[in-house]
Amino acid sequence: MLNHMEYTYSAEAAAEAETYSSTTPQASAMRKKKSKNTKRFSDEQIKSLESMFETESRLEPRKKLQLARELGLQPRQIAIWFQNKRARWKSKQLERDYNILRSNYNNLASKFEALKKEKQALLSQLQKLNDIIEKPQEQAQSSTSTQVKAANMDSESENGDTIKYEAEVKPSLLGVPSDDDTSIKVEYFGMEDEPCLLNFVEQHAEGSLTSPEEWSTFESHDLLAQSTSDLQWWDFWS
DNA sequence: GCGATTTATGGGGTTACGTCA
DNA sequence: GATGACGTAACCCCATAAATC
User: Fold this and answer.
1) Nucleic strand B under 7 Å from the C-beta of A76
2) Sign of CA dihedral A127, A130, A135, A141
3) Distance of C1' in B8 from CA in A101, Å
4) What span, in angstroms and rounded, lies between the C-alpha atoms of A105 and A108?
5) Is the CB of A90 under 7 A from strand C?
6) pTM of the model
7) A8 CA to B1 C1', in Å?
8) What is the pLDDT tens value at each position of chain A, 238 positions in all?
């Protein structure tokens, strides 16, 4: 609620100045006269103002008058000091917020890079495992095909028709987990307790986080909040 | 002399209140 | 008496000037 407090500091000077046109030498002299009155507040005054600002950044009119009396300043000076103080505080607060955001971003970016490397390592391991699994399979296939060829020779009908044998072996039948088999993944990685993380990883496993559009939808603060309070999932990855 | 900081001013906007038709 | 328009005062934020460190 605003009160109708009167300005008592500059009212007289302003009224005096307004009696002249703003372009006249008198007005110019007036401004000089006013500006020459600017004095630094004493340490004691600053101390009191600072301590008051800590309790409330906006002064009630009554407190402003009281403070003005106590410090021997005009209420207008108190008001202006608080106004400037708020501006300084806001500027510093912006700086602090910027530093926090930058730090959070760097933190998140480094974690993302680590996750990317981890993913690459896992994919590489998977590829190696696939190679190991497929080699005996190929050997088996080649031996089978020679047998089939032999059999074909045998099974060629009397009228010249050839019977074709197709040996299609699915990887899943050989014990290799397919990408969409969640139960196998859970079993492999022991992540029954982390369904959310599993979903997260699956959703972003294809490098979709590399696009800025995806970053905007990626709610990093949830992950960060979790990471700061409970590092278990991160320990798993690192 | 120069840059950073502090004090103060002025403009433009908002809100609360009083007055008047 | 209720109401809307208008004026005024006090406050705010913001940009900036001027003095000081």
Assistant:
1) yes
2) negative
3) 34
4) 5
5) yes
6) 0.54
7) 38
8) 333 333 333 333 333 333 333 333 344 334 444 444 678 899 999 999 999 999 999 988 889 999 999 999 989 999 999 999 999 999 888 888 888 999 999 999 999 999 999 999 999 999 999 999 888 777 777 766 666 555 554 444 444 444 444 434 344 334 444 444 443 343 333 333 333 333 433 444 333 333 333 333 333 333 333 333 333 333 333 3
